[in-house]
Amino acid sequence: MKTIYKQRRRWQPDETLKLKQIYSKWGPSYAAEQLGRPYSTVSMKAHLFGLVFQAHRSWTKEEVDFLRSWYGKMKIREIAQRLRRQPHVVSMKAKLLGLKREDGKHNRWTEDEDKFVCHWYSKMKIREIAQKLQRTPSTIYVRANILGVRKRERKIWTEHDNEFLQHNYLTTRCKQIAQHLGRTLYSIYKQAYKLRLRKYSKYKMK
């Protein structure tokens, strides 16, 4: 019995335009929410377009005053929504301002910070991640261990790997190909892009 796979939703021109407009300013989490797509899918598409999240948008005096007034009294996510910023950006600014919670401790790791570490830990240097999140490299290393994230050694693509990918890319889910080859889903997408492989939702009937 032939297995029928669910077709992936194609990116529409208006979605691509919106991604280019908001990704650099608001980041992958916000873009994924606005586009109604998975975080990983949005990040991959942004990578293909060469889009980079510029986390350090200038803060206005009004924003800083608001942060000083409500930090420790309001949840980070709520402050971020009020200021239309990413939660981890708010946390970074609080650290730079020396703000602490009422118990005297620095703010905990946010969900967005954890996602950032999980997504970029195997692709960026630890010190670069630390600079983005305004934390120390040792803190990033410890957090990655807690999250179970590891640096992966780059696995060379063999002729057999490429042949398997080319033969199965149109008919098999990328997740299954990744499991068979012992690779990450990201590496499958990247290699398919290099080999100019594309999935088609419709086929011409003879």
Account of the 3D structure:
The chain is 57% helix and 0% strand. By secondary structure, it is mainly alpha-helical. The chain has 3 domains: 13-48; 61-147, no CATH class; 159-194. The model is unreliable at 1-6 and 201-206 (pLDDT under 50).
Task: Explain the layout of strands and helices.
Blueprint: H1 13-26, H2 28-35, H3 39-48, H4 61-70, H5 76-83, H6 87-96, H7 111-120, H8 126-133, H9 137-147, H10 159-168, H11 174-181, H12 185-194
Low-confidence runs: 1-6, 201-206
User: In whole angstroms, how far apart are the ends?
Assistant: 22 Å
Summed up, the domain count is 3
Structural class: mainly alpha
β content, as a range? under 5%
SSE order, one letter for each helix or strand: HHHHHHHHHHHH
The description of the largest β-sheet is: none
Name the descriptors.
disordered C terminus, disordered N terminus, mainly alpha, globular, 57% helix, 12 helices, 206 residues
Task: Write a compact overview of the structure shown.
57% of the residues lie in helices and 0% in strands. By secondary structure, the chain is mostly helical.
